[in-house]
Amino acid sequence: MILIDKGKCVGCGLCEKQCPFGAVTFTEKYPDFNEKCRLCGACVEVCPVKALSMPEKEKKVEGKWAGVLVFAEQSGGVIAPVVFELLGKGRELADRLGQKLICVAFGEEIKDPEELIRYGADTVYLIENKKLALYNSDYYANVLVDFILEKKPNMLLIGATNLGRELAPRASTRLRAGLTADCTILETNDEGLLVQTRPAFGGNIMASILSPYARPQMATVRYKVMERAEPAERKGEIIREKAKAKHLKGPIEVLSEEMLPVEDDIVNAKVIVAGGKGMGKKDGFMLLTDVANHLGGVVGASRPAIDANWADYPVQVGLSGKVVKPGLYVACGISGAVQHTSGMETSDIIVAINKDEDAPIFDIADFGIVGDVNEVLPELIKALEEKKAST
Fold first, then answer.
1. What are the tens digits of pLDDT across the range 43-78?
2. Which of 87, 138, 142, 158 is the most exposed place for a label (fewest CB within 10 A)?
3. What is the SS3 assignment for the chain?
4. For 245-272, what is each residue's pLDDT tens digit?
5. Span 282-296, mean pLDDT?
């Protein structure tokens, strides 16, 4: 709340003029703050006689929280690939803090849980029940929150999958803990806090976010962003626990699920030939398909191309699409805005084709061709066909 020292207040009205929310009105000669006040402190800063103040309530983390927790998403008992990337980063953070790396998986029958130990976990908890075999948002949130309140991990890492993007905010809301989504960098500062960095404002800035007053510090991370952990022979503990019956109740019952084949997901492609607005029209994507077929790859697209209905959303690469890391990425008619490059810049080899020699895409490309894609690609297709015919 805003406190007023009426002995100092001179009724100048600067606080009313400065308030961005229109929350200040004057009763007699003193300011009055209504329900619109957001406690931003603008009025306190502008007061020339220091008649306004906003006492800060001391904030601190209650209880002892330690360890890094990785949520091990599974489907059909098989651990999701993103988990092994989270384990790599989690191991790094845990070692830096001198804490344990914990992993928890929900399901009916998790296959090869020892694999989580080999990839870095010190302790693996398997919360088992047939009702957890298929993802149910109510059940999973209930069990995860209960687990966190019992184990009190300092940090929680979850994959930014369809499941993770629903589960993480449900858990953070119930725990009253901060959550940073789609992190690209995770580090610790000198105070041991998790520095969560992610693109913001359409990728125009990189925001580093701290959560100093609530636990656990929660972050979701997209697949293919972090380095996958390297397996090694390690010793660890696997603890099996039964899910509590009270947590397996809710208004929704999941009867079955149907998963797309893994090979249909652009994230798993080894070669991607992607097109942007520079393709000029939808027919231009036929050239991309031809090149991709010759290279044994798939077609991707930037957001402008998706917005123009030249390709479908599942193949969109970038901040609002998917993060990919193929062996070869061919960017055709893509300018190289950060919104796109943040989703493909870690590709092993990047080839860029653009008629603008100053296009930002050339800054990250291993090989660049300056030219009109609609002229370059037919020549590339011709060369690929000739090579195939000669072998």
1. 999 999 999 998 765 567 778 999 999 999 999 999
2. 138
3. CCEECCCCCCCCCHHHHHCCCCCEEEECCEEEECCCCCCCCHHHHHCCCCCEECCCCCCCCCCCCCCEEEECCEECCEECCHHHHHHHHHHHHHHHHCCCEEEEEEECCCCCCHHHHHCCCCEEEEEECHHHCCCCHHHHHHHHHHHHHHHCCCEEEEECCHHHHHHHHHHHHHHCCCEEEEECEEEECCCCCEEEEEEECCCCEEEEECCCCCCCEEEEECCCCCCCCCCCCCCCEEEEEECCHHHCCCCCCCCCCCCCCHHHCHHHCCEEEEECHHHCCCCHHHHHHHHHHHHCCEEEECHHHHHCCCCCHHHEECCCCECCCCCEEEEECCCCCHHHHCCCCCCCEEEEEECCCCCCHHHHCCEEEECCHHHHHHHHHHHHHHHHHHC
4. 999 988 888 888 887 665 568 988 999 9
5. 93
Instruction: Return the CATH number of 68-247, one of 3.30.365.10, 1.10.3720.10, 2.60.40.1120, 3.40.50.620.
Output: 3.40.50.620
pTM for the model stands at 0.75
